[in-house]
């Protein structure tokens, strides 16, 4: 998976070179390039925003720099990328989308700021590539960068070879097909500040352990995400 990330704050993405994601890049399993949107401006002040038509507070990102950025990235692309635009007004990002984009050869992330990107950019882009406007949750950030950091981590960890034991991807929360939240995990010591590890986990009886874990998953999901249970039973 290769990603182009377009932003007015390139330094936001330095953390991607840390930990598992950075290790995956150094191993050649994934790659990305961060681009400063202002590279596609031509005025002295590298202007990327202007006042909204129709009035209202804040500023809107101008379409021209985005159009030139997408033209350049498409010209260089080996295959047609998917354009992913983080926005509070988007479809929910999900583990299924993370898997889909982990298998994609090329994605382009467009990080909006201010009140967002001129709506014509997504409309224009959709004539040249698949476009997905995606939300990472029902809250509002100041821009798309944090959303892209979160999505990059969710996506890259699913690329084959990135996590040491692929089995660890199977039983985690929101594992595609399971729809249940992960069961609680324990490690040594067996007793800690008066709290003991559940006996069944010390039994060595794999069938009983599995049944206990399934029950804890359903119990936890019913308590905090009953909507997933409905989907799971659908
Ligand atoms: O909350 B978000 O995911 C998000 C995404 C993009 C922009 C652009 C301006 N505010 C934003 C918020």
From TrEMBL:
S-adenosyl-L-methionine binds at residues 112, 136-141. Its main location: cytoplasm. Gene3D superfamilies: 3.40.1280.10, tRNA(m1g37)methyltransferase, domain 2 (1.10.1270.20). Coiled coil: none annotated. It is an enzyme of class 2 (transferase). Specifically methylates guanosine-37 in various tRNAs. Belongs to the RNA methyltransferase TrmD family. Homodimer. This is tRNA (guanine-N(1)-)-methyltransferase. It comes from Propioniciclava flava. The gene is trmD.
